[in-house]
Design goal:
By secondary structure, the protein is of the alpha+beta class. It has 2 domains: 74 residues, no CATH class; 222 residues, Fumarylacetoacetase-like, C-terminal domain (Fumarylacetoacetate hydrolase, domain 2). The protein is 16% helix and 29% strand. The chain is built from 6 helices and 19 strands. It has a 7-stranded mixed beta sheet with strand order 7-6-17-11-12-14-8. Strands 4-3-2-1-5 form a 5-stranded antiparallel beta sheet. The longest helix has 16 residues. It is globular. The chain starts with a strand and ends with a strand. The mean pLDDT is 95.
Length: 309
């Protein structure tokens, strides 16, 4: 049966949900015959039924569908979800990244948190920080130390609350690629002691316009059986900076969903950024500057490129 990717694309009447099948883009509502499927969020809110409907539509499109399509190369894709209720971001979730940041800040290396009985922890980015594939992120006048972070992103497809780890992946609709851009010089609060528990400002550090490039589409979870075995790479101006695999996460995705859903409901369309591996700019004193191009690639998902201005 033909596979598909779930995308959002621009039209003269506004953004609409699309299905990418091979190298062509179809309007999701028209191809499925479901008028409500005009947005990816609407599809995700109907995910239990939508999975079979989308697969059937993709199979029909691979044959001789009368529904018009365009080459995906001609489409203007946006971030695939507009807009999630929340973007949750895992902190320090690759051992090699935690080690490089500890060295950078001259702090002792923390032991594996599992051995201490600890759980995954997350911070939140504002939903409207999502940035489209190919879009330009403006940093001039905002920060002199904007950093890159390639991350596997999971998209929730069913309301999830108090979910045990062994069932957690059943709540994932699909996966996409994200760049958790970070303004390193906006994180430490001025005139606050370095030893103060109130030193860090995670909002200014992680949430600014354009700080969450996402895309180019969502690959259904049924096409990625094991999210803990995907290659991740990031280049700045074609120079490889990050090269890792999702198997190196400290807390796997199932553990993250279980922890996030503990006492709190995750909603369809919510996005979980699962952490970044070693190779970030701050560990080597390098930061993004106007004119740079950042490209990330995740195995079985695709490539996401953005420019810095």
């Amino acid at each position: 049966m033909a596979g598909y990717k779930l995308a959002t694309y621009k039209t003269p009447d506004g953004p609409r949900a699309g299905l990418v099948i091979d190298d062509r883009l179809f309007d999701a509502a028209k191809l499925t015959g479901k008028p409500a499927y005009t947005s990816v969020l609407a599809i995700l809110e109907d995910w239990r039924a939508a999975q079979a409907i989308l697969k059937k539509a993709a199979a029909a499109a691979a044959g001789k569908s009368r529904v018009k399509s365009i080459p995906v190369s001609r489409a203007k894709l946006t971030a695939p979800v507009r807009w999630p209720s929340a973007i949750y971001c895992a902190g320090a979730n690759y051992a090699d990244h935690a080690a490089e940041m500890a060295r950078r800040m001259n702090r002792p290396l923390e032991p594996d948190p599992h051995t201490q009985g600890l759980k995954a922890w997350h911070f939140i980015k504002a939903a409207r920080t999502l940035t489209d594939p190919g879009a330009t992120v403006k940093v001039s006048g905002l920060s002199d130390k904007v950093d890159w972070e390639v991350e596997l992103a999971a998209v929730i497809g069913r309301p999830a609350k108090n979910v045990p780890p062994e069932k957690a992946l059943q709540y994932v609709a699909g996966y996409t690629a994200a760049n958790d851009l970070s303004a390193r010089d906006r994180g430490p609060r001025a005139n606050i002691s370095d030893t103060s528990p109130f030193k860090a400002d995670w909002t200014k550090h992680k949430t600014f316009d354009g700080s969450c490039p996402l895309g180019p589409w969502i690959v259904p979870a049924s096409d990625i059986r094991d999210p803990q075995n995907l290659g991740l790479k990031l280049w700045v101006n074609d120079v490889l900076k990050q090269d890792s695999n999702s198997k190196d996460m400290i807390f796997n995705l199932a553990e993250q969903i279980a922890q996030l859903s503990n006492g709190m409901t995750l909603h369809p369309g919510d996005i979980i950024l699962t952490g970044t591996p070693a190779g970030v700019g701050s560990a080597r004193g390098e930061f993004l500057k106007p004119g740079d191009t950042v490209k990330i690639w995740i195995e079985k998902i695709g490539t996401l490129t953005n420019k810095i201005a």
